[in-house]
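Q: How do we represent a protein-ligand complex in a form that can be generated token by token?
A: Start from the inputs.
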Amino acid sequence: MVSIIVTHKKCLWYLEDCLKSIAGQEFKDYETILVVDDLQDEPEEFQKIIDEYQDKIHLSVFYLNGKTGVSAARNLGLDKAQGEYIYFLDNDDYIYEEGVKKLLDVMEEDTDMAYGRVQGTYQGTVTFEEKRDFEKEEERLSKYDFYHPLEAKFTHYRRLENLTVLGAVYKKSLFEENNIRFNEEQFCFADVLVLTKIMCSTDKIKGNIDAIYVKRHHNDRYNNPAIEQTPKIDSMPYYFMAVDNAKKIAKGHKEIERHLDLILAKFTTLYLVKKLRWNTEEEPCWKEEYFSELHKRLKEVNLRHLNRKYIYWLEKSVMRAVAAGDLEKTKKSGNRLLAKRKIKRMFKNKWARNKAFALHIFNKMETKKDWVIFESFMGRNYSGQPKYIYEYMQKHYGDKYTYIWSVDKRGLKIPGKHKTVKRSGLRYFYYMNRSKYWILNMKQPLSVPKREETVLLETWHGTPLKRLAFDLNDVVGGVSNYKDKFYRQKEAWDYLLSDNPFSTEKFQSCFMYPKEKILEYGYPANDPLYATDREERAKKIKEKLGIPLDKKVIMYAPTWRDDNYYEIGQFKFDLDLDVNRLEKEFGDEYVILLRLHYLVVEALDMSKYGDFAVNGSAYDDVTDLYLITDILITDYSSVFFDFANLKRPVLYYTYDLERYRDVLHGFYLSMEDDLPGPMLLTNDDVVDAIKNIDKIEEQYKDRYEEFYNRFCCVDDGHASERVVKKIFGE
Ligand code: C2G
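Then emit the structure tokens for the protein with C2G bound:
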């Protein structure tokens, strides 16, 4: 029997994934020992999960009393384990269904340990499994050298944090006979000692790289940090403790000793040099205490004996300087090393190159107090709050300011006297750097340095229906360090615009943003929806789009799907709406305006449809499209919050509701109770709803009113004025 030892402290959605993966194991002869260390979850919620899995995975739960930490928890697990074999599994990780079986397959009578592969991810089981590409996996595995066990679990890694006991089955007797325990003083890096002991105690080790352990990196170090995300400054004492103890144990095992030395030497070039350059003032311990601790250890090391394969020529001088205890020289060689890395990056990446120009040249020039830079949807459109703030300023302030638009698409038509700069180009960096005001409606690139005196108004682009940023568990379609980046981006915002009290409340949690800096002024982009000449405007827009004036307009404006993309930020869209059928049913009275989300790069094939369908995807400003729309069909896009200012009917075509709600995002509102229109699951439903649109309007009258009062209560046609007066003064 295998005893699977799971340690848990907090985060139930992680734990569920973990236990689910145990339940799915092909190998069935196991027990699960769950050791709970200082539970931080709701006890009832926790108990619910335990009850659900109790029998399914032969689960026993133990609580750490009077002790804390993952080391103590694993030791208790070892004490309670009944099996002949041990498998450690952390609550935030999970295993493939064949994970344990494949390890046992290679275990023979006298094998002490069988290890597999540890694969990192930021995602939960569902998306991870879905994305699993068997062909690619095979291809990668065929290239994978089947390392010597010592290399596979130990010397292949250059960072202490990579030495892990995870992803392997051990004979329990290996722990008992060699008195192997986790050091309970060791808050982090406890695996190092255990792994070193194991490597020094036995060579009866086998591997099966098909057995995969999935190690989940936490995507939110602010609200739910993993131990590995402990700030370096706090983990350093444990770092030294782990290296020292491991070296004592490894005495006589030359290869291991040398590798521990290499890890220590590498630490100086991977971390110390950065800390000495950027954190010297705030964290003096790097140049004092930690420098001398590293020096004390490195001076004993024969640097020439370290594995050359892992050391680059510029690193050697840093290591030698630390060994000599020469702080100034360490800084100098460290800076050279960092400069080399930076130059390499500059050659590869134009953002890095332009950032260097900005930091070294533009940053030294004075800020222009009357320069305002605008950008909408990362330069793809002339639209949104930035457009209407700009137009208000043009009208009321004229030449008092210099207006600059950052654009990323050719042919954007922007009226009024202004300059345009190509987003990401050198001029963009120049103007961003020197303009006092930035008016943006999406997150700003972190590679553009923002000065102290710059005022960044983040207008955002919608009332949130779907959970965002820090309120999301998994971020399915985003970059792996999405929340880390988001944190730094929102820290730079001086103001955040909100359209209603609901957004103000949600923005505080999803963006971790303080209420005092939120301007609940309504959306400038919704001003035209209250304009007295809106009928006139609508006529012109219809003409521009070639829509006959006597035809009514149904706009279909869905949002993007996080899991359907070519690459991050380049989304696909499969049109599920049966446009031909709608044409047959409603072609005489309506046209349909198809409006894909700006993140969708897919071009619609309009040749399949006749005059009934109009492609509005490339049209710059969705506000214009609201003005000509009689019925809006959307799904989970925030368009309906804005559109509702017009009090016209909204239908929700939510054919993939379950997946969207349970896997991709989750919502802030109850889709069943709060929306001002019906949810439709099939094309039949859509046809029926359009046929009966008057009835639906009647049926949803009260709810629409409530919705309007809750979400459209601030907009009144004067949001631009309020915003401009606040940011630029009267
Ligand atoms: N939009 C659009 N066309 C669509 C969908 C959206 O032009 N078919 C524009 C609208 O201006 C809308 C904004 O994009 O208000 C945001 O649309 P969402 O679909 O909600 O997309 P997202 O980028 O995820 O916005 O807090 C706001 C949202 O939750 C985040």
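The two ends are 76 Å apart (CA to CA). The first helix runs from residue 12 to 23.
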